[in-house]
Amino acid sequence: MLNKIVIFGVGLIGGSFARALKHAGAVRTVVGMGRSAASLARARELGIIDVVGGDMAEAMRGADLVLLAAPVAQTEAILGALAPHLQPGTVVTDAGSTKSDVVAAARRALGAKLAQFVPGHPIAGRETNGPDAAIIDLYIGKKTVLTPLDENASADVERVAAAWQACGAIIHRLTPEEHDKVFAAVSHLPHLLAYALVDDIANKPHADLLFQYAASGFRDFTRIAGSSPEMWRDISLANQAALLVELDAYMAQLTALRARLAAADGAAIEAVYANAQRARRQWIEAIETAETPQPKDSAE
């Protein structure tokens, strides 16, 4: 049981974290902090938070856990503001989609208190934003990646892990560098591609006609282009080096596929499609297996 948690950013990620912990009976008081008074008021109205935080010292007093669920570019400013009020025994974590930059920001902002910061990233989300998007079951069966620092105490890492587990998440651990390389490929690049495709269509002179006939395939491929542009701008820039590596590899793949199309090489095109289909099926099966609740042992 956490007596008090403070959440910076009470939208989809932070709000769902609060709702899940409340639903699990794992927290007594949730304090919400953020830039938007309207969002904080709405979160209070919805019962996501118990207190709208104002004064930083008061918000941080007696907190067991602090979650940063704001865009990653705000990390250093938030940590710098809370650092003077960070008491012994309080653990800070984040939900940022990049980790190397977040760790660097934490080192600059927290200094001697760095050990109290345990980086994290819940692998769950939707394209909707704000407190009204927060749901109780967002994290059930989903991965949360922790990237602990050498300075972290094991008990502090376990406190963060336990909070996410109370939300229904499955804990994984990577180094910050491993994390950023992985997510450049499977998250950041897909978002870049979705935004690029919709922007390309929208800028065509006959965009209205094209969107009129866009159906489920286009909707499914571009769903994530409905996500927050501010957040994904920050993520793209924060993970620039790894994202550029993946983007270059993808452009090479497109160039090779274009050559096969220009040569009308149906067999080669089909081989690419078949390999992709096979890999996707295996991936979906692995996800479904991992997310299926295991039966509990029955008492004799």
Automatic annotation (TrEMBL):
Instruction: Show the InterPro entries listed in the entry.
Output: 6-PGluconate_DH-like_C_sf, NAD(P)-bd_dom_sf, PDH_C, PDH_N, Preph/Arog_dehydrog, Prephen_DH
Q: Which GO terms describe its biological process?
A: tyrosine biosynthetic process
What UniProt keywords are attached to this protein's entry? Oxidoreductase
One GO MF term attached to the UniProt entry: prephenate dehydrogenase (NADP+) activity
Q: Which Gene3D superfamilies match?
A: 6-phosphogluconate dehydrogenase C-terminal like domain, NAD(P)-binding Rossmann-like Domain
| SUPFAM superfamilies per UniProt | 6-phosphogluconate dehydrogenase C-terminal domain-like, NAD(P)-binding Rossmann-fold domains
Q: Does the keyword rRNA-binding apply?
A: no
User: Where does the Prephenate/arogenate dehydrogenase domain lie?
Assistant: 3-291
Per the record, the coiled-coil ranges are none
What protein name applies here?
A: Prephenate dehydrogenase/arogenate dehydrogenase family protein
Name the source organism.
Answer: Rugamonas fusca
